[in-house]
Fold:
Amino acid sequence: MSERRKWHEGLRVTLWTLIVPPAIWAGHFLLSYLWAAISCAKAGRFATFPTLFVIGTALALTLIALSGWVAWVKARMPGDPPPHEESNEIDRLRFLAKSTLLLAGLSFVGVLFTALPVVFLRDCL
Amino acid sequence: MRRERGDAGAMRNPWLWMTILLGLGACNAEQSTLHVFGAEAREVRRMAGILATGAILIVAIMAALYVRAVRAPEGALSHQGGMRLVLWLGAIGPALILTALLLYALPAMRPRTAGPDDLVVRVDGEQFWWRIAYRPAGAGGELRSANEVRIPVGRPVVFELTAQDVIHSFWIPGLAGKMDMIPGRINRLVVRAEKPGRFRGVCAEFCGLSHALMAFDVIVMEGPAFDAWLDRSRGGSKGARASMGAALFDAQGCGGCHAVRGTPYDATIGPDLSRFGERRTLGAGILPPTLDNIAAFIRAPQAAKPGARMPAYPQLSVGQARAIALYLKGLQ
Amino acid sequence: MSLHDQDDPALRAAQEERLRAVWAPPKGLFLRWTDTNNNRVGVWYVLTAFGFMLFAGVLALIMRTQLAVPDNDLVGAGTFNQLFTLHGSMMMFLFAVPMFEAVSIILLPQLLGARDLPFPRLSAFGYWSFLIGGLFVSGSIFFNAAPDGGWFMYPPLTTRTDLSGLGADIWMLGLSFIEVSSVAAAVELIVGVLKCRPPGMRLNLMPLYAWYILVVAVMILFAFPPLIAGDILFEMERLLGWPFFDANRGGDPLLWQHLFWIFGHPEVYIIFLPSIALFAMLVPTFAQRHLLGYPWIVLAAVGTAFLSFGLWVHHMFTTGLPKISLAFFSAASEAVVIPTGVQIFVFLATLWAGRVTWSTPLLFATGSLAIFVIGGLTGVMVAVAPFDWQAHDSYFIVAHLHYVLIGGTLMPLFAGLYYYWPLVTGKKLSDRFGRTAFWMLFVGANLTFFPMHLSGLMGMPRRVFTYPAELGLGGLNLASTLGAWLFAAGVAVICMDICLSPRRAKAPRNPWNAGTLEWLAHPDDEDWGIRSVPLIESRYPIWDQPDFMKKVDEGRFFLPDAEEGRRETIVTTVLDARPLAVIRLATPSVKPMLTAIALGGVFILTTYHLFWAALVCGVATLVCALWWLWTGTAEIPEKPCKPIGHGLELPLYLSGPAAPGWWAMFITMMADATAFSGLVFGYFFFWTRHADFPPQAMADGPGVAWPMVALAVGVSGWLLTLGAREVHARGRVMMARSLLCLAILLSLAGIGAGLAGPWTSDMDPQAHSYPAIVWTLAIWASAHAGVGAIMQGYALARSFAGRMDPTHDADLRNVTLYMHFHALTAIVTYATIGLFPEVA
Structure:
């Protein structure tokens, strides 16, 4: 949701937005682990079909893709050719956007990796 | 020139060592993940082979690339080219390899399933020995033992693992991966042995002074032989009740801690000695059970095993201790 | 002052004279140790950490000698257990982490063109804490009292006082003390990177070392506090018998393992990333070009930081947790390979694109990369859970972790040593010695650790003081021992090289022809750090900005003078490094040392159960800290602004989010909140462990009433402080003071109300883990209320003493920030202990 606000404010990319994609990964990872651990400990089983997990994963992937897309748009702001290492605001912005984009890519893969175990393991053994 | 040596030397070393050292250490067949007798360990050994081959290939490729990179003249790689290198070889390549690896490894995590009719062996880790209880399905009840695990070949066996004092870990390298024994928790490990023989297991989690001296024998038997052994063992322990050793055993209060089936001694503080005579080792897998060793162990357990809980019996003469040892050797 | 003025040599000489006087180190047998300048404190820090490394290395050598042949009896089991426990603990806590802090304390101001770090006294405090705690822990082995439970200290072996002696307390309390100094360093480094960059050094121009240090320091904030929480529970069990880890009374040994490894795995990356950061500095130098793929490195650093917090359970693969839980961590453990691979390929591409000048540092870097790659790949293997079930706690892991740590921490540090030695001493180390040492280390490391892969797979468990000859492991172990001696000899060659250094001639300035700011350092070093704070327009200003060195040296940039006779540096904005203010830095003082000694007394005396003496030291710590703050911080300047050259005039006072002090408070409180979340995690962990939690017999818990009162009191105290800040900013000082007085009363009431719940319900913390964790949470929140009262009292006193007024209100703003976190703590604590039993 922070993405939307940024979008309305005219797409600002800062040190805080840099960590949005990995933070989404972290949130997704933590909830996946807690969900499995708590249902195994308290109910003895966790899912025959993990609807909630699928929705959560789709949501996480969408948010990461969204922030990656915002970053992609910003990384393509017109300016001098790469590497963006001039001391001006545009280059700083494009650098942060590029880093955010890369982090979004990594986080996307990270969420997919987190989702894989649920495909293969559905019990608490 | 120097740089070439720097790099090629780095990468060639492992190969060299592996060849030399594999030759050096090929003689241990009792306690090795490379010399397997169980289905789980065989699966993991195959996996290890695949992983190690992949790792060696990657090391070789990295070395070749590095040599190439240091030797390349200035500007051999453009900014765009460099970015492509990082993207494809640094990011996308590893991501694909790792995805493939996970697709292979995750299904392999599924544990073997066991039915209600399968043999359950409960093992409690103690400082520094193993309390064993066989719980076969059906009537007959539990059979208690210590420091030696016998299992039938070809049938699933469920180990129920826990500990009373501190954390231990149950590891039979040739049979399956290890599983921790944690106070307050019971962990299950389901295994299937594939060939009969005598093997060895150890404690893999640091558990105190004599952690290094906490092992056990594993004896894999053919199914019918195992069943017969189980039946036989349930009866009273055969031993020379009227011997001097038996009298000393009684007088010294050994029965206050140790149980011998078929006698009044049924304490559970120390290891069950009912079938001590058939064990291959003394002191949880550390010494051959000769009369001398047993006698020395009785007189000063801490000398053989620092931190052992058994009190020392220095008041016994060597002869008396040997008499007890003789009695113990007769327990079958 | 214009450029023109700086053309006058007489003026420049006068400026230099003033700077020299201001930055002159204290002299005298004792006073010299009160220095706070980063150059000196950093060097002490490095030398101390290096000394601990040598000591821990000798311990390892004794172990390897014991294991050279089967059934050896050089040392007994008891000694051996102390040796490996101390070796691991010292390498981690007394070498790897402090070494990175030490190197950063030396390098960071240079890299950022700052005169010093923002809180020089905090660095000194960190150093003294480290020294005292380190000597306490490592010295214990001479009294046969060293910890012997493994560096992971798993309970119940370590919490049962009948199974483990004083060593466990020494580990827990001594290292807790060092964790405090690590958090202090993290505060210093984060604020340094974010706020003390030179004008123009936007985020995209920051040296990569600074990026890494920023990331690592943030990781410390989230990694160390869970361990501190674990330490608290651990000592409560050892000293007071509260059963957090005792399964017979509702505890669980696995809680410790979770808390320990939530710290323990990020820790690996905390010590790995700074070493890679050294590569990121030296690779461009020896490729003689800009690093290719700067954003990729940022991706890798930030990505690794996040992923590293999702790996901890891979140290617990054999604890019997559900396979699905293990699988999440297995997947994340594989994912973390991606950013690591990216970093290696960035270096590869840079070398490929550049013109490589071969040198000793690059040789070390190459060797460490080779070793690290092998360690990384065995890491991929053990991240596969079924393989780990075999390899876990066997010598395979010993091999893996040493490949990672030698390739990823130790050898890069040696590369850094050869690279940065000229920066610190003005002299180069010998290439001949360096190359010899390198080959001894490289061959030694491989000879020691490669055979261990095999001995592990052949069934050799870790942490054994001997092994039977029948296992056929003798040959492999002998090879490892020979390798270890060779490795040690290599380290000895390096030590010899260092010892010979004072006899060598000075090297030219910037001897490697590097492009980054730290190489402005002159061989005949001045204590002022940098002659004038430059305007940065490039990532490699020495290469790219014309006449850069000359302009800096001639004071043609900012702040070339110290007119008021004060130590000063420039504070800039986080994103774009726009100049914000000039801050006055603290001067040498004995206060940091005294505070460290007093705090050390608390930890050390508690170890020996001298609780009253420890309490006295606790009070002394508080007094020292307040004295330090009162006299050394948030000083109202004699004039609002000062010119720094080029027509720029900057304020001399900052408060609120622009000020370094506010950030320091924010960062400290993040660490505090993380430790707190570790305790809350404990509460809910016990809930998952028990079918009925709270247990039937104590189902009422602390009741609902008192916790709700405590919650209301906590929130009101926060609102009052907030109100005090607002009315104070509007100039209504008397009203602000009255509100603060009320707030103090509420904070004090908060202590009572917080403890009243468990107290009036007669909860016996020794009976079961439930009352124990409820008491712990209540005590935590109440203690924070107490600290809140002290802080509010401090702000009030500052106001009465005329050291705080509506335009200079940093103290009040920082106290309010503390109260934000305190309100959060109170809400979570009392909602958990008061309301959760109602819904559970």
User: Anything to note?
Assistant: The two ends of chain A are 37 Å apart (CA to CA). Chain A touches chain C through 49 residues (CB under 8 Å). The longest helix of chain A spans residues 89-120. Chain A is about 75% helix and 0% strand.
